[in-house]
Amino acid sequence: MSDFRQAEAVTETETVAPPVTEEVEEEVQKPIEGPPPGATTSLWSDAWKELRTSPLFLVSLGLVVLFIVMAIAPQLFTSTDPRACSLSNSLERPSSEHWFGFDLQGCDYYARSIYGARISMAIGVTVIGFAAILAVILGSISGYYGGWLDSVIARLTDIWFAIPTILGGIVILSLLGERGFFQVSFVLVILGWPTMLRLYRSSVLSVKEMDYVEAARALGASDFRILLKHILPNAITPVIIYAAISIGVIIAAEAALSFLGVGLQLPAISWGLMISGAQTRILQAPHLLLFPGLFLSLAVFGFILMGDALRDALDPKGR
Amino acid sequence: MGRYLIRRVLQFVPVFLGATFLIFSLVFLIPGDPIRALSGDRPMPASVQQALEARYNLDKPFWQQYYLYVAGVVQGDFGEDFRGREVTDIMRERIPVTFKLAIYAFTFEVAIGIAAGIMAGLRKGGFIDNLVRISTLIVISIPIFVLGFMAQLLIGVRWGWLPVSGLGDGFKSYILPAIVLGSTSLAYIARLTRTSLAENMRADYVRTATAKGLKRSRVVGVHALRNSMIPVITFLGVDLGGLMGGAIITEGIFNLPGLGNAVFRAVVQQEGTVVVGIVTFLVLIFLLSNLVVDVLYAVLDPRIRYE
Fold first, then answer.
1. How far is it, in rounded angstroms, from Cα B224 to Cα B43?
2. Which helix (H) or strand (E) holds B26?
3. Which of A158, A265, A301, B250 fits a disulfide with B141 by CB distance 3.0 to 4.6 angstroms?
């Protein structure tokens, strides 16, 4: 279980501590009773029991569900069309009819804030989904087989890791003429995968020494089967915890890039773009900054809090 | 220790070369012809264009351009921009601003972050602990540009406590940007210190130290804290480099003429050599601070050395 120590360092810092895998491997060699699927379920069912009563987790769950529903069905929250704008309403302050006021183009700001959830959530989930798949495939190869492939992958991750996300994002995105959902997601995946890969690799390293993996191999299971059925369910937990937090981080990164003008482009409706448009009118119309900033922060908060609660529940050492 | 050091330094070289190659190839794939763009609408005489291309090595094959560039960087020559200005001159002008900003932010986050982490970690589950946990989560959740604008609007403009733009007021101009820049890392440091200290307080050696009758301040300050600092220091290494890179947004909001500001403008103006130069410099700082931390790490935790 002590692979959680690394998960913890990572989730706390979004970076990976220097390798301490060797001691981890030793500590992990405690016998685990029952078949691996059973062990996994019991860890998760224990965790679920604890999570159900944790107020922090329930708050985070509420926020995450709220923003997911907002992304899928914004019509539930507003019947106003975010693209139906009238210049005569330009920069109007919030009122009882229009709670969030209007932006420069005279669009209803509440409707725009609601519709802004869609692209943020889509990018967050897509990026983390692809990064996780990449991390599991490469991490399995790297951690399970080791050898020169492991060294090559490790050096490649080191190189990518050396480039700060925002800086790399600016350089790459500024090269692309058209920047939409696809381009921004792509860039965030290629800048975001190294951390997850390192995390999964070290997890695989400790799990592959387990007796049940040895047993499966003795029974003649193929490498693919061992990796998929025995290692994956037992090694994926730190990645799941990190993924919950990362969705929040990715949403913030997308907003930052859009804010800097190298992310999404108008007429896309995105919180980052809305804040970017607010920056020159921050004094005369502070509501332009406040509402998208609030939505963005709440969405990020929901995912980070959820990751935090998951870690507490899944990490037996914390009890 | 010697072998460990040598191995770390040897690992550093290919990573540095790989990262610079990556940046170099990305930037010089920028579509468009920067030389032709210099003359605007009027066509440029072919001889002038050829001379300029030769001057910036643009007529040579790509790998040779990269080789010449790295050879220059190793000798401290980062090339010149398309107006004939040395990139090192630009950097020399900008580095002090970013460096000061990063150092102030760093000091702020380390001092407050570690103090908050210790207070929380010593009484896990107590009032201060919960306060630190929730407030750090909130700080982490607010994106830095939202935080920056809020601070600028409230502290700077509404209440008028601190300057909000430019460098006109010397040290005072740096206070607000440094706080904004350091706030996210502060939250991470506080959380790391907290978890790590709370874990170590349950360790056998701490119980032994208490049982020997040592004063609590000594048990915490010397025994527990020293071991708890290991993950924090690892984070600080990554963070110092990250601060220099993260300064792009902060410098933009507070209008500070630093490296981040320069690199952003260079990207927009297609000044390839300036972009590559500054990004290379930032990556170098990042890798060097990681190297220093890895060495420190081995000093603090002897197990690492015998890997």
1. 71
2. helix B2-27
3. A301
**Residues 6+ positions from A241 with CB-CB distance below 8 Å:** A7, A11, A307, A310, A311, A314
Closest CA of chain A from B304, distance in Å: 7
Please tell me the predicted confidence (pLDDT) of residue A22: 40
- B49 in any annotated domain: no
Rounded mean pLDDT, B55-72: 72
Please say whether the beta carbons of B90 and B274 come within 8 A: yes
Yes or no: say if B57 and B64 are a contact pair by the CB < 8 Å rule.
yes
* Domain ranges, residue B108: 99-300
Distance CA B29, CA B209 (A): 61
Domain count, chain A: 1
- What pLDDT score does B78 carry? 73
Highest mean pLDDT pick, B15-24, B36-45, B78-87, B191-200: B191-200
Backbone angles phi, psi at B86, to 5 degrees: -65, 135
Rounded-to-integer distance, Cα B56 and Cα B51, Å: 9
The whole-angstrom separation of Cα A5 and Cα A43 is: 16
Whether A282 sits inside 8 A of B149 (CB atoms) is yes
Q: How far is A32 from chain B (nearest CA, A)?
A: 24
| pLDDT: which is higher, B152 or A25 | B152
* Structure-block tokens of residue A301: 């908060």
pLDDT digits (tens, 9 = 90+) for B188-237: 899 888 888 888 888 888 888 888 888 888 888 888 888 888 888 878 87
Indicate the residue type of A176.
L
Domain limits for position A130: 64-318
Q: Is residue A296 part of a domain?
A: yes
Domain-located, residue B58: no
Say yes or no: B299 contacts chain A, CB-CB below 8 A: no
The yes-or-no verdict on residue B73 having pLDDT over 60 is yes
* B69 token code pair: 């560039």
The ranges of chain A with pLDDT < 50 are 1-39, 318-319
The CA distance from A131 to A235, in Å, is 16
Q: Does A174 touch chain B (CB under 8 A)?
A: yes
Residues of B in contact with A305 (CB under 8 A): 137, 141
Across the interface, whether the CB atoms of A305 and B137 are under 8 A apart is answered: yes
Chain B residues inside the 8 Å CB shell of A9? 192, 231, 234
- Using the 8-state DSSP alphabet, how is residue B57 labeled? T
